[in-house]
Amino acid sequence: MCSDEHVWAGIQSLLDNYVQLDSDDDVVIAYTPDSTEPAAWVFLAFEERGVKAVLVRMNPLRDPGFHERLSSVIPERREGPGRCVFLLFERHTMSHNKVVKTAFSNYGPEQYKVIRAINSGRDLFGIGLASSPSELSALNTTILEKCRLAKTLRIETEGGTNLTATLDNSRFQWLSNRGISQPGKFVVIPAGEVATFPAHISGTLVADFAINVNMYYDGDARLERSPAIAEIDDGVLVDFRCENPEVTAFLKKCFKRRHANRVGELGFGTNTAVKSAVAENSHLNERVPGVHIGFGQHNQTVDAAGYFCDIHVDLCAKGGLVWFDDSVDPLDLTNVAPSRNPHPVLINCEDVFSDDAEDDCCGILS
Fold first, then answer.
1. Is the whole model's pTM more than 0.85, yes or no?
2. In a designed cystine with 177, which of 95, 138, 186, 193 is the match (CB 3.0 to 4.6 A)?
């Protein structure tokens, strides 16, 4: 049993607020070897509630036998009431989307729920799940309501960020990661972000919180002591500097890839439980209330964005003020008032971009 009260509270939040288990539901938990312990905690939490979950081991990224093992515990079709709730826990990867979709291909969208966890561990539960999906949804809605009506944004942070962005909301879609499932779609945790592809963006980003990258990085991701400063001209990184030599060397290697110096994402974190950066390369760091710029891989179709890139580098700044068009009063990203309105429709709700192939989400194979 996990002894950390914050971690255990996060696990209970997972069951109560994210899974929302019904008495007729069945539960299957898949896990990679590096996430055995977190999967065991969740298994025990279900067991305490009288639910016997089924455990399935999987190897990250490449596992030829996973489809057969999954088929043995998930029937080809679901008969009777309730759903199959499928939770997947991984540390550094997000694997086997095609296998999972195939497993539920004969299910109606209301007959299953898939929750994917990346960076599984104490921080995921103790920090990332402390904010409920309803809270995140209300915060995301506030930002979306302002951004979807705006043409230009001006963004400043105490650390020195000064960016001007132009939006084209008729062309580029918004993403809202809030931990709430849509029928037939995956839920990705940790949650708490809205993002889009800016039509134009220029200025200076002072990333004084952390980096997050979709490839394996075993260095310290925190930037609080040595910010990374990125100079952007019309959506292209033209210069960057950082006093941390390890981070500098890593980012130089990243930005050498084709199109990796292009701004592929303008994002705003909304998870108020994230206060301090974690050392691990983690999605938690881009969920911090603040602004982040993702270079390289984007969250649009290739036709819309105009290019393809296999790497995504987030440089994250904590906090910030956002002015919309000619507004006098900015939005304080650390003090967003939750909206009372329903979350906008026709918004992509998660950030799994490749769901039709075996995923190299974190670049381990690249």
1. yes
2. 193
